[in-house]
Amino acid sequence: MPPRFDMAFRPRVRRLFGNFGLKVLALLLAAIVWFFITGGRVVYRDLEVPLELTAVPEGCIVNGQVPAKVSIRVQGKGYAVLRARPSEFKVALNLAGVEPGVHRFDLSPADVIYSGKSGIKVERILSERIVMVELERRETKSVPVRADFAGKPRNGFYIGVPQIEPAKATLYGSAVIIDKLNALVVGVEVEGRDAPFTVLVPVRAPAGITLVGADAARVTVPVGPASRRTFTEVTVNVPGGPNVYQVTPPRVTVTLEGEAGRLGALKAVTARVTPADPGRYQVRVDVPEFTSLIAVTPVEVDVRGAAPKTPK
C-alpha cells in the first residue's frame, strides 16, 4: 500500500472499529427494546392461505373453478404474528350433507383453521368472501356398443347385423351427461365390401366421461349377396288419416334389398307423407335396420283435403 494512502486510510479504520464492544452492545440493546415494544403490542398482517373443500359427499364431484387461495388479515402480539407462517392456516368449507347443485358460501373468520401456537386471531377475510361451489352427482352406467357404417358395400351385396365384442361399455362421470346416453357408437368403414370381415375399432366416451375397461371393440360384419323383396299395396299413411286428407294413389309398391332371412321375416312395410297443406309430396318409407330401399312406385302422391261428409 502506498504510504500516502495508508496514512489516510488508517484513521478511518480506527474510527469504524473504535469502541467496538460498546457499539455491539448498543445494537443488542436496540434490538431488545424493539422486540419488547413490537412484541407487546397488537399488530396486523395479511396472508394468502389455501382454500380446501372437505367432506365432499360420496358419488359427487366439484365442478368448475374454486379459488385455490384466500387472502386474510390476522392480528396478535407482534412476535406471534411475525412468527406465523401461511402454511399454518387454511380455509375449510365442509360440504357434508350438501345436495348436488350450485351453492353459495359466505366466508367468515370462523372458517379459517390455524394450526400454530396461540396468540393469533383472524381479523377478517380480505378476498373471495363469497365462494360459489357447484356439486355434481357422478354415476356409473352400462350402455350397449353399436356400429355406425360409413359408405356402401359393393353393388348387389348387403351388410348384416354386426357382432360386437364387448357388447356393452361401462361409463363413469357426470350424471347429467350419462343419463342422456343410450349407447356408444363406433364407426366402421364398409365401402366396397363384398365379403364378411372383422375389424378392431376404438371406443371413445364423450367429453367429461370416463370409459371404464376396454377402449376398443372387435366388430364382425356379415357381408353377402343381397336378395330383393317387393311389397305391393303398401298404404300411404297421413296424419289425421282419411278424415283429414285424401291421398292419391292411396297405396304404393316398395322394393327392399338385404339378407334373405331378414327380408323374409318382415311382416309389413310402413310408408307415409307429412303434408303441411294440400299438394304433391314424396313418399317416405320407414326402412328396417340393415336393409336398403331400392324403389318406391310411385315416388310421389297427391294430397288433398278430405271431402266433407254428406249428412244422412
Rg calc: 41 Å
Largest sheet: 6 strands, mixed
Helical fraction equals 10-25%
What is the fold-level CATH name, i.e. the topology of the largest domain? Answer: RNA Polymerase Alpha Subunit, Chain A, domain 2
Proportion in β-strands: over 45%
Shape descriptor reads elongated
The overall strand count is: 24
Return residue spans where pLDDT drops below 50 for at least 5 consecutive residues: none
N→C terminal distance: 140 Å
The CATH architecture of the largest domain = Beta Complex
Order of helices and strands: HHEEEHEEEEEEEEHEEEEEEEEHEEEEE
For the structure shown, list the relevant keywords.
RNA Polymerase Alpha Subunit, Chain A, domain 2, five-stranded mixed β-sheet, 5 helices
What would you note in describing this structure?
- Helices cover 17% and strands 49% of the residues.
- By secondary structure, the chain is an alpha+beta fold.
- It has four domains: 3-39; 42-128, RNA Polymerase Alpha Subunit, Chain A, domain 2, CATH 2.170.120; 139-220, YbbR-like domain (RNA Polymerase Alpha Subunit, Chain A, domain 2); 227-305, RNA Polymerase Alpha Subunit, Chain A, domain 2, CATH 2.170.120.30.
- The strands form six sheets. Strands 2, 5, 8, 11, 12 and 14 form a six-stranded mixed β-sheet that branches.
- It starts with a helix and ends in a 7-residue tail after the last strand.
- The mean pLDDT is 87.
